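<discrete_fold_record>
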Amino acid sequence: MKIGLLSDTHDNLPKIAKAVEFFNKNRVEFVIHAGDFVAPFSILSFEKLNCEWIGVLGNNDGEKEGLIKKSKNRIKQGPISLVLDNKKLIVIHDIENYDNEHADIIIFGHTHKPEVKKIGGRLLINPGEASGWLSGKATIAVVELDSLDVNIIEI
């Protein structure tokens, strides 16, 4: 199963549209957003995804109820846990101070820096900032769950 990851979109509608277009073109089967959508209007682009998607709230998501409602409850307060392709995934915005339960993959954002590392048998993935506001580099990630191959892609 191929999944798409993004985080820290911060209302950058052109970059969100590029990410959605990339995920659709590359036929990802599920998309996960690791927080900091910011405003509810930014959710409209996600409706163009050709697959199911979920997300967690981030520290810059001010209108939380609006985001949850506009996303039809796809966005939740993190951490959230789900199983895809027999892999347990945890999604959280800020991994700092998180006492993680058992998971195969932990997906996080907040730092705006793409990161892929293995710690104690767990794969930790930060897709970086899809907005590109801080670093000037907008990134997303694609993960092949069967092989745990991760690709960070600049959009």
In short: The chain has one domain: 2-154. The first strand starts at residue 2 and ends at 6. Residues 2-154 form a domain with the Purple Acid Phosphatase; chain A, domain 2 fold (CATH 3.60.21.10). The chain is about 15% helix and 35% strand.
